[in-house]
Amino acid sequence: MAVTRRAFLTRIGQLGGYGAAFTFMQQLGLLPAMGVTHEQAKLRKVPGNGATVVILGGGIAGLISAYELGRLGYRCTLLEARDRVGGRNWTVRRGVKIEFTDGFTQNCEWEEGNYQNFGPGRLPSIHTTMLGYCRELNIPLEVEVNTSRCTLLQSDKLNGGAAVEQRRMINDTRGHVSELLAKSINKGALDQDLTSEDKERMLTFLREYGDLSHDFLFKGTDRSGFKIPPGAGKEDPTAIDPLPMHALLDADLWQGLLSEDAIDWQATMFQPVGGMDLIPKAFAKQLGDVIRYQADVQKIRHDHEGVTVTYLDCKTGQTVTIKADYCICNIPLPVLQTIDADFAPDVREVIAAGAYDSSSKIAWESRRFWEQDYNIYGGISYLRQPVEIVWYPSARMFTPTGIIVGGYADNESGTPFGDLRTVEAKISASRQAIELLHPGHGKELTRPLYVNWGKIPYALGGWLSDYSGKSIQRLLEPDGRIYFAGDYTSHLSGWQEGAALSAYRSMNQIGIEVEKKRPDPPFSSSAALS
Amino acid sequence: MAVTRRAFLTRIGQLGGYGAAFTFMQQLGLLPAMGVTHEQAKLRKVPGNGATVVILGGGIAGLISAYELGRLGYRCTLLEARDRVGGRNWTVRRGVKIEFTDGFTQNCEWEEGNYQNFGPGRLPSIHTTMLGYCRELNIPLEVEVNTSRCTLLQSDKLNGGAAVEQRRMINDTRGHVSELLAKSINKGALDQDLTSEDKERMLTFLREYGDLSHDFLFKGTDRSGFKIPPGAGKEDPTAIDPLPMHALLDADLWQGLLSEDAIDWQATMFQPVGGMDLIPKAFAKQLGDVIRYQADVQKIRHDHEGVTVTYLDCKTGQTVTIKADYCICNIPLPVLQTIDADFAPDVREVIAAGAYDSSSKIAWESRRFWEQDYNIYGGISYLRQPVEIVWYPSARMFTPTGIIVGGYADNESGTPFGDLRTVEAKISASRQAIELLHPGHGKELTRPLYVNWGKIPYALGGWLSDYSGKSIQRLLEPDGRIYFAGDYTSHLSGWQEGAALSAYRSMNQIGIEVEKKRPDPPFSSSAALS
């Protein structure tokens, strides 16, 4: 008996999403067997046949939902509380006002052309769903230099507190590690683990890997820089003296430095030319009046026939009610906690427990001293100070001024930076950190702006604190006809790609429901995946 | 007694160039104490007072010499054999003809906008002299992605000959090395070398560095990719299985892969937007009729009063003689060997012995399958095949077609690639290599062009074979009034920065001679370095 399409698809859905679907599609030869996501294949294009969907929140997940469902014949309405879409995808430029929930206000007065992405600032090349939309919507991209070896590291316990170049830390560490391993091998310590042939090959390899001397000692490497640089005179170049391994351990800078090895931080990285918000703006242009701006959701009710949402139209002061067959809820949990909704008890419990990090950035406008005086073009410096990160712009290199980030806290709570009680103190710590890395240049920093997502209305947080996803697993399934979408419901929390994948999941789930209502054609495997 | 300026400067010159000057200036606090070149400080601005200079060859060293000396009041004439300047800085576009010394001719028919730099293709951010000229001449630069973790590695001895992503090799290797070192430490093998405190800290560090399990084993890392990628379903992402260390050693790919750690290949790297030859073109525009094109030098004579150069004006067929007070010779040694010159015997000997590598590149025009199907944006793949390198373009990412380099031989002589007897065989090997990395895509490659610098007239080689500089040390000093400039007279052979530094050296040496002819003012240290 032929398996019905409905049963087949339900089974795929029940297998729990993209992991299973990915493996399945790999087996069907539909995807190259590579360790990266190929999610565009995962949006099933199920016609909506006029089914209505109300989408709550115009973050990336909400925008993609409205965009794709609209193209499939669903009739969508997107309710967005702000006068802009994008959610945490927010680019601040001259003229933008930043308002905190406690009333604190900042106005951006930077020069035309300068901007800061205060939410997402990177698009990895392996985030193919987001890159796919950039192509589709003709959003120009430029390389975001996430790793630059001229950047600096600063710890009071290293080099007398003076910053050292990242290339020294990376390459001296590898030299020391290689020397120690070669020493162990030569002592016979690994004779049980390596054949004698492998021992020889490991030693030969380690000598290259660590740039060791002929007798397997690490005496410094020019990968780390020069004492006597290569010139056009008689003197041979000489490598800079190596930093001792115990000093590198003392410095305790590895947590920052190893970030660049996370797969989502590896070259090649991108950013839109002119600001990350070009992405939501492009979606908004396509969606037109599908989006209702300044629509502040007040109440959500649902039953087996549909969803009813009541919102305050902040422009007119009127309360408006809208009914739809389905709802995709893209509201961040801290905000959702404040909305009057008749969720099931287990759903309500998960929402109530959803804690978000107070992530923040501080950005300054300055002459590009990091380029002109330090050869730093993009990339990140790390410090063991209350401010731990300085991030250099990849936008508009070689122009006179730019925006430099001094401080990017994943979560302010319980950290020395978060313990600084006033905005002034935080901004001062930011300037001090940049001064530590670039002595004499702290005074060039002007017009600081501080965004703490925990204090931004309609966000109330940067991202879900518990990244494992386990705490919100219930929300991967709908509550009746309400589907929850957003990066927090993915394994890519904090990434726009996670938001996109979650939107696909929700849309696919809705598609299964819509198909249930149709007559049941016989199943064929090729049709199943169209 | 006050040291005369002349004596002081002579002493600096005698110290052998930039190494000594750099240290000296560091001590005077004139330079940040960093391991990179700061060469702009090293061109002494000595007025020429109308002294005449004939410059032979319009490579980067010749162009910079003419440009700077002209600004200092010298009267320069630059003789360039070709109808273009730049030397090996050569960008091929639609309409350009490539002619070899044996008569073999190729015509470039690529689409408008596509190009290939067949000589230098990279500008490191630490090559501050060249970057300085790009700023000064308003040459727009873009990031040249030299390292991209989505690139591939292929060895018949690894993974059944199927290419693996670079990120796997890099990160799995580090995992294995970390595990082996942790094992050695835990066995007590390094108890003589590490304090017990350092042992503990090393172990903690190695666990992060190699992404080891709690018990210090390397079981794979998601830095290398995924078996189950992170999605928006219930399944947790799972790291890709690690490649075994002995397979990584078998693969023997490290020589290629470690190239990215050379200081001159480290991020951030640049290239001019639209082609490297924007640099010589910009100089040419500034120099105007200082440059005589198609001036093929035939004869060089010199004495204590000046230099006489005879050249063939290829446009008219006339022989022309020009006299000057000084000469800067920027002709590559293999070409200089063919010119009738009255060099001193020791100089003649060095020139005659100068051997150059036959370096080559092959470039194709193609749909950007590497971007669209492999997420590869810039960067380099490595193979253990006759063609060892595939280099992906950083120019015009996300456009439909691009130029991909399949094969970049440092020196063809004595290599499997060089042993391929015909151009067709080399081009075929290039296509095969790209096919090995990207199965099914070899057929998309079109319009191949092959440049072997050993066969290019007026070059006759890629760069000096002996990089140590020792073989040409005699040429760091003039022969009478003839000064030798070019990358081959620097410790940055093969780099435009080396050419620039060599030009500064020659100009500084000429400056000393010009000053000797002037009355001798008392010396003050601040004036010495102006």
Automatic annotation (TrEMBL), chains A, B:
Keywords for the protein's UniProt record, in alphabetical order: Auxin biosynthesis
Domain of life: Bacteria
Catalytic activity, reaction form: L-tryptophan + O2 = indole-3-acetamide + CO2 + H2O
UniProt key word Ribonucleoprotein: no
Keyword Oxidoreductase annotated: no
Cited SUPFAM superfamilies: FAD-linked reductases, C-terminal domain, FAD/NAD(P)-binding domain
Entry EC number(s): 1.13.12.3
GO molecular function list: L-amino-acid oxidase activity; tryptophan 2-monooxygenase activity
InterPro entries: Amino_oxidase, FAD/NAD-bd_sf, Flavin_monoamine_oxidase
Domain (Amine oxidase): residue spans on this chain: 60-506
Pathway, per record: Plant hormone metabolism; auxin biosynthesis
Name of the protein described by the UniProt record: Tryptophan 2-monooxygenase
Organism, scientific name: Acidisarcina polymorpha
